[in-house]
Amino acid sequence: MVNDFSVIDFSVLLLYLAAVALVGSLSGGKQNTSEAYFVGDKNLPWWAIAFSIVATETSTLTFIGIPGLAYVTNLNFLQVTVGYLLGRIIVSVIFLPAYASGNLKTAYSMLESRFGEKTKNIASVVFLITQVIGAGVRLFATAIPIAVILKTFAFFNHYSDVDVYVFSIILVTIITLVYTFFGGIKGVIWVDVIQWGIYILGALITLVLIYNTLPDGLTEIRKYAGGTNKFDLINLGFHSGLKNFFKEPYTLLGSLIGGIFLSMATHGTDQLIVQRLLTAKNLKDSRKAIIASGVIVIIQFALFMFVGLLLFAFYKGMVPGADGAYFLKQDEIFPYFIVHNLPVGLKGLIFAGLFAAAMSTLAGGISSLSSSTMLDLYKPYFGKNNNERKNLLISRAITVFWALFLCITAFLFIGLLKSVVEMAYAIASITYGGLLGTFILGALFKKIQQKSAIIGFLSGILFMLPVIAVPIALGMGPIVHWTWYILIGSSVTIIVAHISYYCETRGRL
Fold it and tell me: Are residues 410 and 427 in the same domain?
């Protein structure tokens, strides 16, 4: 057993981080306009966009959390990834043609062309708020495994956990900002391709290494699972009865619906992902990129979950937080294994993969926040008379601002209770139903106009606020499982918008 993160490992990690900053800065090429900075002149290959999409949606929480989830449960979560693919197919049919036909620069430009400026501005502001919360949580989560590394060095033993977390957050933010600032969206996408390869390579190597330590291979998993089927994939959920069906985690129906609607919201209405789709050469390439990313995600999540199952066998079914356990919670299992069981050098590469997942998501967050701020809010109102050189300078200044703001936001989560972090994610998910419902109104319901769309949008958000936040605040279990949230929110948005339209038209008669 290897117990320390050696100088060799640390050197591998530092070299990787330096290489990423250099490649990202240079691969962006020369940008002459703010559109080129944020959209990349629409000439990026579809396969690079596909890998970038997957890397962007794969945060540190995914890298360490999905193996932990499989460790304590089974393979039911893979049902959600099938929904992810189906949701992407729907986005390619419903939303992408509208983006392609309008020469749009952000996701919310579509709402402007369909409803008007007010709808676009509200959607942009809502996106900025929720993206800051989500990206801040993910950046904070990155500090946890980094702190595990740093604490293996005697130098950092003199500092408190808070100090180490702050240092970790600043380190990741600076490196990510460098290539996002100089490379623009092109640099971000090409670095994402590299980052995806690194963390997948790390997961594959870990999978092989753990498997080779198990005398009886996969049967070792069953040996410590008792009466539980760790390989269980399909969960119909009917055993809990109708009363608890919607609370049951990862039922087949709930997972498919949750995956479809979450993917439609994130990949059809969220600037974080849509920005990448807008860099494709044409509609056909955008469709290839988004559907290919869905296939890649299924394979990737299956890989991460099998790592979790093998870790379950490696630790002989040890329960997180139990007396004598090496780890307190499931998210610590994979980082603990990396630090304490991988050989010198390889350990540094695996943690480079963990950094890769973190930086890809953070870079996407910074770039999407900056592009929405510049192209949706600043340029139409304050930059109409600016030359392109000034717009590009302002775009980069906004990029620096959001990087610093996310860094500060991540600081705020240090020392907070786990429930508060979960609430932050829940608050971010509150808005997805309203956003998706509004986009569906724009794409499918031609009679609905701006006033009714805004009323429906805000109603969807306000309806989901007590549904999600109140049970968390009161320490209760969820009213329904998270896989139903976006369906409910978008349904309320669409229904209320139609009621508003009906009342408005009746008033004119």
Answer: no
